[in-house]
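SAMPLE LOG
Freezer: B-3
Tube label: C17
Construct: single chain, 646 aa
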Amino acid sequence: MRFNITLLAILVVFSAKAQVSGGGFPPSFDPAYQALFSNQNTPIVSLASVDRVALMAEDAHSPLQTRFAAPVSADISMQNAGKWTTLPDGSKLWQCALRSPGGLGLTLLFDQFLLPDNVKFYAYAADHQRVLGCYTSESCLPSGKFLIGIVPGETVYMECVMPADVVGATLVHLYRADVAYDSHAMNGADFDFGGSSPCNVNVNCPTGNNWQAEKKGIARILMVFQGGEAWCSGTLIANTAGTFDPYLLTAQHCQLLLPNPEFDLWRFDFNYEAPGCTNPATEPAPKSVLGCTRISYRAETDFMLLKTNPIPVNYDVYFNGWDRDNTTTTLSPNTVMIHHPFGDIKKITVDTQSAIIHPNQLNWGSVYGISPTNTHWKTVPDIGIQQPGSSGSPLFDASKRIRGQLHGGSVSPSNPCIMTGVYYGRFNQSWDQAGTNSTNRLREWLDPAGTNVVTQNGYVRPLPVGFKVSGTVTTHWGIPMPNTTVRLTESSGTSVVVVTDTLGRFVFENVAGGGSYSVLPERDINDLNGITTLDMVLISKHILGIQSLNSPWKMIAADVNNSKSITTFDIVEARKVLLGIYPAIPATSSWRFLPAATVFSDPNNPFNGTPAPETITITNLQADYLQANFKGIKIADVNNSADPGQ
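STRUCTURE (predicted):
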């Protein structure tokens, strides 16, 4: 049997507004600064416009094509565009605007987005009605990639405010902007917040009262492709080990909506829902995660398993359970789907009748292919509907376990609130049936120990009972130090260690409140790193009074023998390391660290008076401690040539 079926995920973004951020407003919005900015126009960089007529004509040749935005290339950085302003407190403000003439909105894509501590980045619309940010060092990804948007209108403004001493370490490069060119496809519907049909039912209406745990696993997925962006839905899914690995089940066809999915920029929005039954006047703020890896997928049952980047521990999420029973031919009445139609706030759909196995092929057309017989469940909902953007959302049975994920459905030609058939790839078929290896089935990922159980209940990830201690480790000249061990020691002597990521960040989770702790980075490898004959010359000039080392940090680096002074013996020790006579610096580790906030009582002689503490001490921890920041000193390197990655 051949069906006319609408794929429920083919929706390109017009208004994607979620990202982990700190809120607030850009400095230029502050009335106290109006005089400073009143006569200064932000420089606008002109981007290419998109040919709306040609794009829509191209789209018309493919009935399933619902592209809304086309990418244009860019090359924007703080070094080649925008303007700088010094604020009254001495901090620096970078401002830049981008314009694509005729664009209805812009999404910003960065291949470099590195913000040191105390840096804040904003993006906003020309009318100031939509402000995204502030983004901080906590927002950055180890990959350096980032996404902001969408900002409505043809022009988007960017502002970044930072302490003057980290200007060189603040690295931002925008390589692409996606330009929305058509807001009236899909029968004139809007997109994301408020854009779905009134036939839908909010998840916090009475219909959803018994699904308050399960809804916490559902995510709205913003998908980035080489040719644009699209929406789908999905769910976190439990495994038999009971761990919190962020596996997320969605639909295989979601990756086919446009060419070349860029999974490291896909965004997952949790908790995007109305607080009550009615649609809210203002948009709720989701909890977002950026980036994922594709784990496995199969076209026949239209499943795709992703693994998202780590989900912050303070996100209240749920891992939904599943049932892979292969003997059931019908599902008991009251199957449920929770989803994000058109990228809108979370909705719930119910079929009060029994779901059945669909005995026929399903022809989805174009690149989406044909689903074999008996690979899908069929439902006919009585409460709520599905729309583009719902694809990948789970089908729950009456026991609240996943039985499949949404592939697509058909609507009554006389009433858009009536679905004539909705089809879900069968979970039990995706588990192992005809799957040849772990890249096209679920078994290995969701049953890692091979228990062979048939059902798995869902479970909640507990919220942290302790506090977070976090910070960054950089060189004293401002470059992040990855792969540096950081030790947290409790007053009793018990300690734990973590390692910094590529941005030099570290975090200790669930640190017990009420305790007293010390934090200290440790790094003692590659003693030769950064040591050259030039360092010997510079240390000698300092000793002779010809040319003093220009910072207390460099003076500490020159104290190679750890004598709390700088003498010719330091040159001798450094030279022995350089010549290979010493395998390592004997008197100290190759790197030393001081708290980033260290203030030297005598900057011209850091050895004078009470030595600066090398640890950060936390007494009676009662809240998150998020500024445990350190600066590293490479011993014997006084010209800052050491590579912090070695």
